[in-house]
Amino acid sequence: MPHLARPAALALVLALAVTGCGADVSSEEGKGDTPRASDDHYPVTVENCGEKKTFERAPRRVVTNDVGITEIMFALGLEDHMAGYVMPDDKGDLTTVPWRDGYRKTEWLSKERINKELVLDARADLVFAGWNYGFNEGEGFTPAELRRVGIDSYLLSESCRNGQGKARGVMAPLDALYTDLRNLGKVFDVEDRAETLVSAFREQVAEARAKAPKGADRPRVFLYDSGEDKPFTSGAFAGPHDIITKAGGDHIMKDLEDSWTTVGWETVVARDPEVIVINDYGDTTAEQKRRFLKSHKPLANVSAVKNDRIVVLDYVDLVESPRNPAAVSSLAADLRRFGS
């Protein structure tokens, strides 16, 4: 089961962000006054995955799917606009994370897959999810289906499809996070809070980059999510790409114009990563994944395996979430340690 790391650093960033908005900080989660929409703010229009969406008022009963999406809402202080969230129970101890008060106040609707019946029962007026982060044509749960029953949707920008089949990704991963923070800030009339978060996150990433390996010192890095016959990994448009590159690594799958996708082990071996990052989540533990990588014969001569340069980040660090900037800082420290 993943442990959700670095709560102190995240709490500090969020506290600084909310303080910068002029809100009262009532706890280390950085929570302040409940955002209130002004009457003259609406209607507002934002562009989401290439579609212009107009809101006549702030949604009041949002259902979110998955941990990163849920914490975007919490980071903006929007739990009072939520009907609840859906996610598996493999996300660690939620009582220790920076947004624990949001989890305490908001109903955990289901630990199973999100579906139309669930959001109808919750009387949702908006579903915040993404392609392969809840929305899926094969299961009949799509923005179009929700529209037919009078429920609006907002797509996670990391999950935007780019027109090449079902390939996802239309912008750099951290830009996707900043885009969603700004869009939702506008939709819920908390733009100052969103801008302060974006500024704080940009500063955190810049500080990590300033200390990160550069030039020829940048190690080749591979993200291992799961899979034994073929590895599931990150392309250029999923969170790990920006986390790796801004931490000072050379992402070996940067030429894949997709977000999360499958490759062959022969490609990994040919590109010889010097560091492997494990995505920690699900029924297979990070230690089990590490043992597999160390014992998988085709990887025996890969530099990261030979030198035991394998690090672990949590799922919520690697999918689009407010934890991405802290993950850059964490990985940058690991890469500096390996280079020393």
Topology:
Blueprint: H1 7-20, E1 44-48, E2 51-55, E3 62-65, H2 67-75, E4 82-86, H3 100-105, E5 108-110, H4 116-121, E6 126-131, E7 134-135, H5 143-148, E8 152-155, H6 173-187, H7 191-211, E9 220-224, E10 232-234, H8 239-246, E11 250-251, E12 260-262, H9 265-271, E13 275-280, H10 286-295, H11 303-306, E14 310-314, H12 315-318, H13 324-339
Parallel strand pairs: 3-4, 3-6, 4-5, 6-7, 6-8, 9-11, 9-13, 13-14
Antiparallel strand pairs: 1-2, 10-12
Please supply descriptive tags for the structure shown above.
340 residues, alpha/beta, Rossmann fold, 6-stranded parallel beta sheet, 13 helices, 17% strand, globular
Helix content: 25-40%
Rg: 20 Å
Low-confidence stretches: 1-5, 18-33
Count up the domains. 2
Protein name: ABC transporter substrate-binding protein
Pfam families: Peripla_BP_2 (PF01497)
InterPro entries: ABC_Transporter_SBP, ABC_transptr_periplasmic_BD
Family: Belongs to the bacterial solute-binding protein 8 family.
